[in-house]
Each structure stands twice: as C-alpha cells, then as structure tokens.
C-alpha cells in the first residue's frame, strides 16, 4: 500500500458516509486572480481568498471539534460552501508565570498573537497554494510549529506560506495541534495510547493531506514535513515511529529532534498537582472544568505537560536504536526518508535570559552529572563577563546540549545507515529581528528567514539574500528530497549568514551560504556523548 492509497481510501469512505448524497470527488477551481477560489474536498466545498499569485484557504477543518482529553475524530461533512477566508482560533496556549517570564515568552514567541484567539475547538489548518496550480502537480510542505508543547499555532503571521507558494511554486499546509494539558494530559485514567493527543492531531492532519491535497494541486506522493523546535521533535518522532503507510517523503528538522531525550515523567506529576488545585478526584471532574480554569492553574503553577513514551502508538523510546539498526534491505520501524536537519549559532540565549547562578542552572539542566563533568563544562566553555541579561557561558552550554549536538548525532547516525542526509547551520542576526541586544542567531530566528516573513522595515539586501537562499533550499529539498537542498550531503554543513551580527556590518559582499566542515560547530559535542548514550541506548 503506497501513500497514494490514502486518496482512494478517502473516496471510498466519502461514498460510504454520503449514502447516496451527490458530493463531488476532490477537485479544484482556482484560476489566477479569482476572487473566491474553491475546492471540493471529501467533506464539502471550500472557498478561500485569492491574490494574483497565491490562493489561501484558512481555517479548514481536518478533524471534528475535539472532545477534551480524547483522540481526534474525522471532520464531519458540511452542506453548502465552507468559508475559508480567515484563520480559526489557536488551541489553548500556556505561558507560565511569574509575570516577567510569561510576558517575555509572549513577546518573543506570540507577537503578534494568533489572529482569532484561543479555543478548544481548534483542529484546523491553513493551505497556501500557487494560483493556477493543476491538480496533483505540486510538492507539499507540511509545517509543524514549535512552542515546547506548551503553546503555538499554525496560523501565526510568522508562518504565512504565501512567499513559499509564490516564489517557490510549492503548497504549504500549516495545522494546529493541541498542546500542554489539552494535548498531553498525563492522566492515569487515560490509556497510554491516548496520552499524546497532540501527536494524534498531527497524524490526523497528515491523513487529511493524503486524502485531500490533490484537490488543491498538491501531490500526495511528495509531502515533506518541516518544523522547528517541538515541531522538529514531532517530525523525528514521526520518522522513527511512522504511520503505515508512510504519508511523507522527506523531513526537515529545524532546531529540534525527538530521539535523544530522557523519558518524560513530569506529566503524571503535573496532572496530580492540577487535580489537587482544582479539587478534582477523577478525570470526569477535570473534563467538566472551564478551559479558562485549567489554563489558569497550569500557568500559575508552571506545570509541564509534554509527550510520553506510549508504547509505539505515536512515540517509543527506541527511536534512536531503531535508526542505528535500520538498513535499506531491512528498514525496521523507521521511515528511511531523506533528512535535512540543522540548528542556530546562539540557540541557548532565550532559555537562560536573566539567569546568573551558573552552578545552580547547570545542576538543573544536567541533574545526573558528576562533579567531574561540571568541572569540564566550567573549564571548557569561556566564562561570562557578567554584562547583559544573558550569561554567555550558560547560553553556550544549553545551546550545544539541547540543540547543536543532538543535531550532530541525528545527522551522523542517519547518514551512517545510508539515509540521504543534509545539514545546515544558521549564523546571522539583523537589527529588525533581534529580540534583545546581542541576541544573535537565537532559537527560532531562522523561521522568518525560511518563510520570508521577516520585517521589511529595516531589512538589508543581505538579509533578503540569505532568506531567498534558505527558502529555495527548503523548497528544492521538498520538490525532490532524494536530490537534496543543493549542497553536498553530510557531514559537510551549509552555513547561512556568514556570522553577520546586528550592529556589526550588514553583510555586503558576503556569501549567503558557504559549505563548512563540521569540526568548528561540533567541537565540544564530545562532552555530551555519554549523557545521550545513557539516556537513549540502554
């Protein structure tokens, strides 16, 4: 059974559900410049909006309104024309207190906020299509947002896929998925297979794409996943524990992975604290609470809810081992799809903002570390001069440990078993995208460059050049993952931005991308090998 079989199955399901109703099979009708482009999907007719180059279908349901703490269900058919002219609400967000940290996170990662607020009724997606696309002809890029599984929305203006559609001739699909307690509840009354609801939402959105994307002009055989941070982690979970049949042909992971992580034991504890604070003794009681009450409790108590190993329903603890054992002749339980993976030069700064106690922070980051390892870290990473809100020593350690060095491991291990693998490194900052003075190539800063949604006010010609180069590379990979993004495969690394920093030159005359041996980027990763191996290879 091939990915294209999803389309046939979708049509058969439509016939069975329709019980003789004269619904058309998926088809598109969106001439360039038309005012209301329409598509007929398995659930009914959808009308979007048009510009001369791009047609947008916003807030399209890929699932029914969810029942709190239950797996997603297919979208119900509708009568008449569904208005897809504006985004639907984000899923319920969680930004933890105290006020300073909460406000800072919202400023950095949620400004401007989701266009239509928040709601539990949130399982919708946006589709950006080159105007005039013929049925089944275009590569599809399926975006999964980041946010630490606590917040995020597929409809943030940052993720507007119009530039991709117009300039790269690809279709972009951006779904919502449930996060925090609504997406990863940790209740002991829920079976393990129903704990990772956010992952189940992502999979249902992918199934929807397989059954419906042809109507927009997309090729269901050429779907590439791309995502950042928690979205990238979600993608590696999909790669190492894929649905059957595999509904994607390539994977792009930006500053995140899912196979080099310790088991999550926080959600169960967080659930107990939530229930106690709400004066609830069972799941039914928590279900009945107003969503605003749940949100307030988890934010004020800073409770963490995130994915757990669920026995392989969506996420298993053996992903790294399965990849290392995989061969072309015997793939095992992973999807041997081409991979593009990378990180940013200054990933750690966002996460250590305002931290000053080096020993305390490192002890929390690496709670099982020996005194010898702590001494190695403090002696190897240059100490900070104490100026500014970000301790550079802490930022460098966290950036390597959580992002840069796991990128190295995933890239090397994928390439070593014959999976086509490419690697990038984003190393630039610009005055119009800095989030604090000296923030550099911080975590998430590459997203606006890839999407082409960076602020035009104050943009430099070099910034535009780097953005075009990154966007084209991502799209080239999506169009033909086996051929890659346009540079030599790993171990070499494509460095975007040439180390340009806001306030220190504008990049004039510098190349947008250079190829580099990974030795400089990975020079301290040997420190963490034992930690990764102990967590994931036992």
From TrEMBL:
Q: In the Enzyme Commission scheme, what number(s) does this protein have?
A: 3.1.1.-
What are the record keywords, sorted?
Disulfide bond, Hydrolase, Signal
Where in the sequence is the active site?
A: 229 (acyl-ester intermediate), 347 (charge relay system), 443 (charge relay system)
Protein name as annotated: Carboxylic ester hydrolase
**Domain of life (superkingdom):** Eukaryota
Domain Carboxylesterase type B, first and last residues per copy: 37-480
The record's comment on protein family reads: Belongs to the type-B carboxylesterase/lipase family.
Record's signal peptide: 1-20
Q: Which InterPro entries match?
A: AB_hydrolase_fold (IPR029058), AChE-related_enzymes (IPR050654), CarbesteraseB (IPR002018), Carboxylesterase_B_AS (IPR019826), Carboxylesterase_B_CS (IPR019819), Cholinesterase (IPR000997)
Indicate the enzyme's highest-level EC class: hydrolase
Select a single GO molecular function from the record's annotations and give it.
cholinesterase activity
